[in-house]
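quick one before i forget lol
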Amino acid sequence: MKLKYSLLYALVLTNLCSSCNEEWSGEQYEHYVSFKAPINSDGVSRINVRYRSDKATTYQVPLIVSGTTFNDRNYSVRIGLDPDTLTILNKERYSTRTDLYYQTLPATFYTFPETVDIKAGENTALLPVDFKLNNIDLSEKWVLPLTIEEAPDGSYIPNYRKHYRKALLRVMPFNDYSGNYSAVNYKCYIKGAESEAPFVKNYVMTYVVDDHSLFFYAGIIDETRVDRKGYRILAKFIDSGDGKIGNVELSPVDSDNKMKFQIGKDDYGKEVIPTYSVTETMDPIRPYLKRKTIIIRNINYSYVDYTTIPGVETEYHVIGSLALERQINTQIPDEDQAIDWEAGT
């Protein structure tokens, strides 16, 4: 009797397994086409693009075909712009603070093909976006909002899950000197009260201007200020010849210099010229990891805050140094991927 029940259970189990296998051999999920562009806490996908003044830089945006089986069809996926999604994001995050809105990157700064081909037997493809970012103003927050468009012939289905069909690319150009500098030794005093406690910042963010220049905001000003454009300081790195040391020329970005930017002077009345140094060392524990450190020393300048209190100018004196470390994985050929942006900048 027990043998009879055992055989019956075995037969039922065999039928169940057979049904499961037949279902698995089919398709449990539709083949949906998605971007691989995960968003960060700001609601966008930051991409780091090497700035080049003489040619374009190509950034590859991955596309994925989802499903439990391999893709068995050829797809020609149409790619377009989606500024409406960016408008919704701005209103949800910043409400009436329109000065903080992300801006759609002008078409003069990029090109990309209208379609991307995904071949049968492959589940991924790359959308090449060519960026040429000469004269871009990074006091604005530029985003390239991409979307997977509907197939006119219904040959593919975009993934309608949130953040899968869209790619909000927050474009951040970088050069050899740009990044988020540690400001531990960067002090901002009210002019004439240098013996008092200074205003301090954890970091000073710098933004690309060209191959050898960047800008940052004076003192404790940052990108959240409505009036930030009037407080930009240009830093031009003058190489001494070996690429490791040199001077840094500081000047106001705006020619009218409403913030009354001035280089500080030493005890002999001479202007204090900032200098920089670049050192590279290999990590002793992870030999593939290179640490590149940039230090800007002898920072000494003054400026006035002419907008916080209408009709009143408050003068500040800034002194100290800034330091940036980039951790670079030498095993990764693509420069933008090799740099650990979270750790180094």
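fyi The longest helix spans residues 2-25.
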